Amino acid sequence: MKNINLFLILCLLCLTKYAQAQQIEISNLKKHIYYLADDKMKGRGTGSKEVFKAADYIEKEFKKYKLQPKGENGYRQSFKAKVWKVKVADSIRDADNIIGFIDNGAALTVVIGAHYDHLGTGHQGSSKDSLGVGKIHNGADDNASGTAGLLELARYFSTNKEKEPYNLLFIAFGAEELGLVGSKYFTEHPTLPLEKITAMLNMDMIGRYNPDNGLAVIGYGTSSQWPIIFKDIQAPIKFNLSKDGNGGSDQTSFYKKNIPVLFFHTGGHPDYHMPTDDAEKIDYQALKSILDLEKSVIENVMKQSNKMDFIWTN
Ligand SMILES: [Zn+2]
């Protein structure tokens, strides 16, 4: 009897563990954002000691999910980025993309991306605070939120029992704030042939959902297949589809290479590029809903039997 009870308890534990693995977890999102947007990370400015620490953190998570390294040196793809908005002595800086792969042996790959750098202590330009130089810009929404989303989607798909009919490539981009440098570098030096990419989904600032405006899903016009993919998509949040392939974030680099894109974005707010973009201001419940929506979109992309066609929108 005792043994049977023990067996039942073990079964229950296994089931709970299995159920947990199949969900986007708010506790994980919080853990990532509070880590990346902590004052100790000093705003993750490109070339700083702290942004390399953030890169280590992402790499460790990728490793934990058993993603295959798909950079040029393990998970890393290193490049140089230039500070050009302001004059500084150290204007040429080292940066990394962190790249992990779920290889399902498929012909086509879906790319999921988010940048993890931010403005540091305001010395690289772009701060909206006129007295921002020297202040830590935590960048919780921009873009610890997207990075946390990237990590949770990577964890989710890596624990999926069924083999998907597509491969998945997860990229945490460096040096976005210096002009989309990491994503441009990747599309110029891809670690997997670009023609094998069916679509790219980018997350930049997805933490400040405003129910009046809804979530912006940009890039809907870049393939005739997006309307098919979105046909049965339901979400507990409001979302607005707009056509443009071009936009102020990393999906633009892929769009320019004729790859269908989507850009998920909860919009501007008074803390945008300010030292006050902090972790406690993130709407974690809405963030989870956005990721659930993305999960459904990715799953529908993987139901397409052919590579998506591409349309220029502007
Ligand atoms: Zn930004």
From TrEMBL:
One example of a Gene Ontology biological process annotation: proteolysis
Signal found in the keyword field: yes
UniProt xrefs under InterPro entries: M28_fam, Peptidase_M28
GO molecular function: metalloexopeptidase activity
Keyword Hydrolase: yes
Signal peptide region: 1-21
UniProt xrefs under SUPFAM superfamilies: Zn-dependent exopeptidases
UniProt keyword list: Hydrolase, Signal
Ranges where the Peptidase M28 domain occurs: 97-293
Coiled-coil region list: none
One Pfam family hit: Peptidase_M28
Name recorded for this polypeptide: M20/M25/M40 family metallo-hydrolase
Record organism: Sphingobacterium puteale
Organism phylogeny: Bacteria, Pseudomonadati, Bacteroidota, Sphingobacteriia, Sphingobacteriales
